[in-house]
Structures are given as C-alpha cells and as structure tokens.
Amino acid sequence: MEYVFSDRVQSLKPSAIREIFKYAADPTVVSLSAGNPAPEAFPTKEIAEISAKLLSENPIAALQYSITEGYAPLKATLTEYMKKNHNVGTDDDDILITSGAQQIMDLASKSILNEGDVVICENPSFIGSLNTFRSYNARLVGVPVEKDGMNTEKLEEALKNEPRAKFIYTIPNFQNPSGVTMSLEKRKAVYELAKKYGVLIIEDNPYGDLRFRGEFLPCIKSFDTEGIVIYSGSFSKVISPGMRVGYAIAPKPIIQKMVVCKQGQDVHTNIWSQIVCNEFITKYDFDAHLAKLREIYRKKAGLAMDLLDEHLAPNITYNKIDGGLFIWCDLPEYVDVASFCMDAVKNKVCVVPGTAFMANPEDVTHSFRINFSTPTDEQLKKGIEILGQMAKKL
Amino acid sequence: MEYVFSDRVQSLKPSAIREIFKYAADPTVVSLSAGNPAPEAFPTKEIAEISAKLLSENPIAALQYSITEGYAPLKATLTEYMKKNHNVGTDDDDILITSGAQQIMDLASKSILNEGDVVICENPSFIGSLNTFRSYNARLVGVPVEKDGMNTEKLEEALKNEPRAKFIYTIPNFQNPSGVTMSLEKRKAVYELAKKYGVLIIEDNPYGDLRFRGEFLPCIKSFDTEGIVIYSGSFSKVISPGMRVGYAIAPKPIIQKMVVCKQGQDVHTNIWSQIVCNEFITKYDFDAHLAKLREIYRKKAGLAMDLLDEHLAPNITYNKIDGGLFIWCDLPEYVDVASFCMDAVKNKVCVVPGTAFMANPEDVTHSFRINFSTPTDEQLKKGIEILGQMAKKL
Description:
The structure is a homodimer.
Chain A lengths: L6 H4 L5 H9 L5 E2 L12 H14 L1 H5 L8 H15 L6 E6 L3 H11 L5 E6 L3 H9 L3 E8 L2 E2 L1 H10 L3 E6 L13 H14 L2 E5 L24 E6 L11 E6 H15 L4 H13 L2 H26 L5 E2 L7 E5 L6 H10 L2 E2 L1 E2 L13 E5 L5 H16 L2
Helix pairs in contact in A: 3-11, 6-7, 6-10, 8-9, 12-14
C-alpha cells in the first residue's frame, strides 16, 4: 500500500526539537534543551492528598464522561481569578478548558484559518504553536522580536501587506524562545494595530506567573473592549504539564466554534485532572505556591545568568530575563548556529538552535536557546562551562 | 467585531445529542440518551490504590511532560495484549496512545483527508466520528446497516462511484447506534473491497470487550496483511472515559503522521492516567474485570430487552443485541421520529432520534436509540413503560 496523505500534512515533519531530544536522552549529555518545570516545582503532596480524597469520596465524578466546555467549578474559579488578578475576561467572553494550551492553538486554528491564510507571529517564536498553524496550511509571517517585544512598525507593514492575515500570535511574557517581555507601550500598540486591521490576537501566556523580578505588566486581553483577543492560559508551568490542562478566554462566538471542534477532537479534557486543579487552586494557598515557584526559578535563572557572564562573554552574549524558563544566546554572525549546536552535542551539552523557532526556513538567526528549569544546578554549571570552552574557540 | 470562521467550521453545529442532553439534565426526565458506563463498572478501588502508590513513589513521572507517542510501557502492554488476544498488529504496524478514541478520528482525518474527500460510513453511525469527518470538510457517503453489518453490495457501489473515497469507517461490534455486529463473512468482504479499491479502513472497536453472549468474532485488523486498517481501541468503556485514554494500531507511516498531528494538538495524552491504565492491566486481573463488566451489562441489557418485549411490541420493534451499550428501536414508517422523541421528552423520557446518526440530513430513518448502561434498573423500567404507553397510542 502506498499511503497518500492530506496536503496539509505532506510536508509536516516532527519538530527539530524532538530530533535534538534524542541526543538529550543520552545520560552522558547535559540537556539544556528541554522546557520542563523543575522537579521541585510540583505540588506533589497536595495533588496526592486531593486525588486520594476525590477517589474516596466521589470517584465517579472523576472517572465518568464529562462535558466538552470543561468542569464547571474550574471554569468559575478561573473566570473569577483571571478577572480579579489580571482584569482578563468580560461579559462577552467565555472560557473553555482544554487539554493543555497547545490544544488552544489547534482549536483556534481550526476554527479560524482556511488553507493559505496568514498567521503573523513573533520571529523567533514557540515551535509547537508554529507547527500547529502550519498543520492547517497557514502561511507564517514573522515579525522581528526586539528587546521590548515585536517590532510594531514591521507588524503594521505585515498587516498592510497581508490581507489574508487572520490573527497575530504573541507570547508577551518571557517569550519562548527569546526570553523577551513586551513593553506596555507595545502591548497597547499591538492591540490597536489588530483593531485597526481587523485581525484577532492569540495571547499565549504560559509563563506569566513566573516573573521573579520587576513589575507585572497587564495582559493584552485586559485591553480587549472590542472582543478580538483569544487568551491562552495553562497549568503546565504552575501545577503539572503531565495533566494537560489549559484554558482559553475568548469572545463567546469563538469559544462556541472551539467547543464544537474540541468535541470532535477529544470530547473533553481529562476530568480527574480538572477537578484536582480546581481543588488545588481553591482549597490550598495557590498564591504561596506561585511565590515558591518564582523563588525556585529566580535562583536557577540567577545561577544560569551568572554562569553565562562568567563563561560565555565576550563571544556569546545573551538577553537578561525577568522570568520564564529560557535564555536566548547570540553567537557572532560569522558562526553557523546549526553547526555550533551539533558540535555542542558532540561535546555533551544539548541546546536548541534558533533556526527551529523561525517562522520560515530562510529566516536567518545566530542564536540558540538554553533552558535552566530542567537541569540540576550541577548540570547547569557543567553545561555552561562546556559552552564556555566552545565560546573561547570561536 | 464580526467574526469570520474557517469554511470547515462555518456549518458545524453542536451535535444533536448535546441538545437532547439538555433535556436529559432535568432530574424529572428519565435519560435513556447517554452512553456512559454504568457507575458500578468502574474499578474505583483499584484506580485509587494505583494512583496513591504512583504519587507516593514516583510523582514526577505522573506529572511531568511526556512523549507524544505515549507511555512506553503502556504501548508495550497493549501491543502484546492485542496481538495475543485479537491477532491485531504486525511488524509493519505501530501504536499511538491518544486522548480517547475520538482523537484517533481527528488525527486520522487530519492526516488523510483533503477537503472534499469522501468517507464511507455505516448508515446510521456514531455521530461523534461523523462530526469529526465533517469538521475536515469531508463528504459522507452512508452504506445501509443490515442485521449482519453494512450492505456490501452498496459498499462496492459507493467505492466504484466515489473516486475520492479515502477510508471506510466501521464499528463492527455492537455498532453505535444500531447495536448490530458485523458477520465474519462481511468483515472479510469489507476488507477485500477496501483492498480492491485501494482505500483504508478505520475499525472503531470501543465495545468489543463488552460481548455478553455468543462467540467473539475476529477484528478486521486481524486480516490486515496489506497494511490498510487503522484499528481504534479505547479504555472509555472498560476502565474510565473521564481519563480519556485510547490507542490506535496502524501502519507505521500513518502512525508517524498522526504523531506529528497529535504533537500540535495536545503534545501528549495525560500521562498520570496512562500510567494508571497500564498498572491496572498488568498488575490486576484485567480479564476478571472484563468478565465482571460483561455480567453487569448482560443483566442490564437483558432487563432492557425484556421490558421492550413487554411494553413496546407490536408497534415498536428492536434489534436483539449480544453486547455493547445501545438498542435500536424501529417506529412504524408512518411515525415521524423527531416528533416522537420530542413527545417522549415531554412525557419525561429522553431517547435519541435516529436522524442524529445519519450520514446526511436527507437520509430517512424511523428509528431511535436507547441506552441501558447509564440508567438504574428502576429508571429503565420507568422509561420503557412511558415509551410503551406512547407505542400503544401510535
């Protein structure tokens, strides 16, 4: 049998990160390539307590079919939490619980994009989302990320030139992979441009709670008087990614279409995990838990940046970060990043070449991404020392 | 903002069943419209034990990111189990753990169907799958279901007339909604026809283990020397639907594409639940558990059929079943099934009109579906008595 696949998946390949993960699985290789929460960041005791109580007192609720929209008490908890803490959500919005925030990218794409439509994204951007957009045969138009977020002049140029643009995809806080946080001015500018050109915004905010320094900035969704922003939230970085629980807050007509698509995709999100998330947020001290996470990552990020200062300067530079899980390192322009990362693996440290995160294959980058949340402090030291030795030889 | 949705979801509506469920939520209405496992069918004690042990001994494994293909030990368990018990799976096949079997329909559709391609399905068939095919703008061609499965002459006719047919969708065991089990001869005939016309088969088998009478028949996938069958398995009816764990066994090139699509859809299936399923199958007596389920449903189905015999004859007839969760009841041809079901709701019993399961809106049916797994024995009695009173007045 010769298999004929759909046009949309003909050219789809497993992500470059997955290929790199194969090297990272070698226990002699120090992996700075993942994006997993630190093992000490999981509220394991609390989850075990909640789950034991749930399965003893109300097991059928946790194990039976549930509804596509999500567990009603969790929806209510998040609606209130996001309104109170982030001014996110209006009476014209609704909320949908999803199987991780990744599913929001899929459901939004499926609901909004025809084949050949355009998604405007930061360049570089999160490869998982870009691949989802690609899987609907969307064309990606990248807008360069600067120290304070996407270049809004280039964004307007893209919006002018691309009548088929349907949405702007942005990660305003501690962007993956660049680590950049968008300034308040640019958040407002992006919103105004989307409004002016009649396109939607997907605001992806998995790392927003992981700010360990500086002032929290308002979400773009908090400006959303027009109903043009799809807000994407996730428990993957603050409770557990293995549970796969995320949530979209968006205008009701968009949520309605996403619900219909979700019904055909997985019926509903694992209800056991939805209940556990809700119990954790409402019955435990969620704010104290977030403060603990910020402290864990403040220390780890601080160590990583100290090591980068010590070992990589002056040949390799990087952007200081205020939160999130990633640091973006820049090689000199005469160095090919793919070869550098391949050499790094041979030297037993694994980082992700920036090329993996670019909107289009022809987009040039000389940067690579390192993650500091997954490795132990010892691994971080060892990995960055190896990179330092390589930096000296450039 | 006026929202413009993709062509594929413009006409998608929430399923008719969902609308009916709204009535079913009224506690004074007896619901025979669901498809939930009986509450007594859940291995709640075992799940609680397994989960407690897991979260105490290896919590990070249950809560951290995992890989898209699925939990390796569960894949190995299922590969061996399906080979040994059902002769399903060859060296050319691979297995993918999914977020319920519903996701298999989505991933297969996304991988295989271009817009306008044709899916040949039994008529009637499971609305959840049909809606997924529709969500990729596939055209559905229905083949009538007879007492021993789909009419294979009509199937061949459809295959001849539809050069854009990409796969045949079938539920060979205790089909939802008709309750029909496909004969061995027809299983072979369907396989040979698919081979002859170069199309794939999706064999959806959520109820296969729930046979309470008669001989188990081989899966179509067990004939699959050509690599043309995508087998869809699920734990929803035998462990827990709330966990959302299913599995596809299919030729490697197809699984590869489905994995890439799944990566962009939800990254991986809830890993906590995957581990729990694997521990339950391997460390407990899974066969004894299945035997217990068969006994629960043998009793409930027996009661339902006795009640139908007593109350609905001769005006309403039905197909005797040997397993599964559903019974298909036929009204006289002069009765409009939609009105009948609406009257039933007014009389406080909720059943699903057959129209919800038809491939196309113009396909005529005079049947409705009842479910016997979810209601208590008392509810079954009350519900079927009400239907009986309505039958007498026809």
